[in-house]
Amino acid sequence: MDSGICYIKPEYLVTEADGGSAAANTENSENNKRKREDGEEVQAGGKKKWDKKERKRGQNKNRPVFKDERYSHLCHSLIDGTGGEACSLDNCRYVHDLDAFLAAKGEDLGLECYVYTTKGYCARGVSCRFAKAHTNEQGRNLKREDYDDKAPPTTCNGVSSELQVRLRKHDYDFSRSKELIRMAEKLRDARKLKEKQEKENNQSEGTVTPPAGEKQPSDTAEMLDAEQHTDSKSKPTATGCAIDDSAIGRDADQKPAVDFREKLVLSPLTTLGNLPFRRICKEFGADITCGEMACAQPLLKGMGQEWALTKRHQSEDVFGVQLCGNNPNMINQAAQVIHETAQVDFIDLNIGCPIDLIYQQGGGSALMRRTNILELTVRSCAALSDRLPFTVKMRTGIYADKSVAHELLPLVEEWGASAVTLHGRSREQRYTKHANWAYIEECAAKAKRMPVIGNGDILSYEDYIERRTLAPHVSSVMIGRGALIKPWIFQEIKEKQAWSPSSGQRYEMLQKFCNYGLEHWGSDTKGVETTRRFLLEWQSFLYRYIPEALQTAPPQKINARPQKYRGRDEMETLMSSGNAADWVKLSESLLGRVPESFTFVPKHKANAF
Ligand SMILES: Cc1cc2nc3c(=O)[nH]c(=O)nc-3n(C[C@H](O)[C@H](O)[C@H](O)COP(=O)(O)O)c2cc1C
Fold it and tell me: Zinc finger spans (C3H1-type) (predicted)?
């Protein structure tokens, strides 16, 4: 048996005799074309061979970029229909011809507006694609009697225009951040000096020096002594960070605000890990959620799109923002503004990001080899506040044959990190081979008190148990693709058994996602199309779920490709299709017809088997 294949029961197999007529899980010409561009060749006999040199990984860079400028926006003065206060702006760029706008808006997509039903008022008013549900005969947008306009919003964070102006005018007070960096520099220099002196002493005494980066058990305490000697006011804190407590207002006795042990953590997932998706995962039992990676520089420029990545839904009771950057000053300043203006429970630093552009600029996984820069970043960010844990997410290293996480992880703990997540693959590996949980265990065992969160390849309760048994020092697990393929994985782990939803139940989940999407991105045409894009991105992972009843030997393994199969009903077959045209069809049943000349190519190549 080939472990790379998920075997399907004979009655569900699609054979040559079927002529491939079923919409079974075949991939479309768009995907095949993409694969050819990626260097995947199809040999005679259907076997695939990979040309490693040619193959490009990561994101689909040549995909058409989705621009939403083409949707006209109605002026806010008309959003509730005619009869309100006229627009007072001379140069308002929005549409003021209500009749023309309504004529061009397109058909309503349904009789019920989720936003109106749940809140009692739809702020998209007459521009909503479900407007008939909340407009009267005169075309006025209605407010239900029980609507509470003082009710707190269900989401928070993002950037206010006032903050945007302060950031753009360099008017934000970063003196605290500058002080933290200065102190982190002092500690780093003291550590380096001490290391140098030790090396010289060892050489003069003829003792053997440990290999670079390999630390002796007593080093941490000695290093802290050295730091205290350099700055007599400094003292180690509960998290092991030795930055001057009085200067940063740290109460050394306070416990970190988040307990990272025995938790199911949803991975930060660019594009896919959006707020509506995270709501679904919360409902299925995810304990900790994290926003999509946000870059420090655009945050400091006050860019709305980047700040949107910090948004949090009220159901996300333990929520973090993930930062990416190549410069300690910028990362720390971004962390400071987030800490001071947003509601977050922790800040995470991504030092595992493999994306070329970020890596070439010295950010993401490049920070795994820029130890001095990393030290400044971790020390300064961990010292921002005792109530704001600072965590680090890393890979095994940059190269497959040169793991460094076992050296880095104890250092990161010493510098003050509250937890580390380790994805058991190198940058070079991306998603090939299996995540190395034996190595994750080796690293986790090196942490003194800091929880280590293991990450990689968990798709079932069995996977979870297997990995936790293999890695007993791991405190919690993080799940990424497993949650994208079957978001109910959190429930399965908590209930210790598989759940095999019917196609109807899976469809209801998609409906829910669309409702949450319309609430988040808006129920007007622009919001509908944004929701569709994110739904399609998600479907590019969801189609990989293989219902247990169809497999000869469940549970499904994350890298196993199924034999060609059809589902137990038409919807199950449609949902298993790897053909982007079928994903669009599915989206049309939920969100209406796609606009003319619509195209879709998934953003992430990690969706492929
Ligand atoms: C679509 C996608 C987007 C991702 N985006 C991020 C990200 O923004 N930040 C991050 O640290 N990791 C990101 N990752 C990596 C995951 O968080 C996780 O480390 C990786 O997928 C391995 O875990 P898994 O096997 O459970 O998927 C992303 C992964 C995928 C598939």
Answer: 112-137
For the CA of 603, the closest atom of ligand 1 is 1
What is the ipTM for the molecules in this complex? 1.00
The answer for residues whose C-beta is within 8 angstroms of residue 15's C-beta and 6 or more apart is none
Fold of 264-497: TIM Barrel (3.20.20)
363: Cβ below 6 Å to ligand 1?
A: no
Q: Which amino acid is at 248?
A: I
Q: Whole-angstrom Cα distance, residue 118 to residue 185?
A: 52
Specify the pairing of strand 452-455 against strand 419-423: parallel
292 neighbors 278 (Cβ within 8 angstroms)? no
The tens digit of pLDDT for each residue in 94-135 reads 999 999 999 999 899 999 999 999 999 999 999 999 999 999
As given in the structure block, the two tokens for residue 147 are 């609507």
Q: Give pLDDT tens digits for 210-237.
A: 444 443 333 323 333 333 333 333 333 3
Residue nearest to atom 23 of ligand 1 (CA): 456
Q: Is 13 helix (H, G, I), strand (E, B) or coil?
A: strand
CA-478 nearest atom, ligand 1 = 26
DSSP annotation of 74: B
- Which DSSP letter does residue 561 get? E
Binding site membership of 482 for ligand 1 (Cβ less than 6 Å) = yes
Phi-psi map region of 262: left, alpha, beta (phi>0 left; psi -120 to 50 alpha): left
Index of the ligand 1 atom closest to the CA of residue 423: 19
Ligand 1, atom 3, residue with closest C-alpha: 269
Task: Give me the residues paired with residue 5 across strands.
Answer: 561
**Residues in the chain, overall count:** 609
Tell me the catalytic residues. Answer: 353
Residue 393 Cβ inside 6 Å of ligand 1? The answer reads yes
Domain edges within the chain: 5-54+504-607, 76-159, 264-497
Tell me the angle at which helices 405-414 and 219-230 cross, rounded to the nearest 10 degrees. Answer: 40
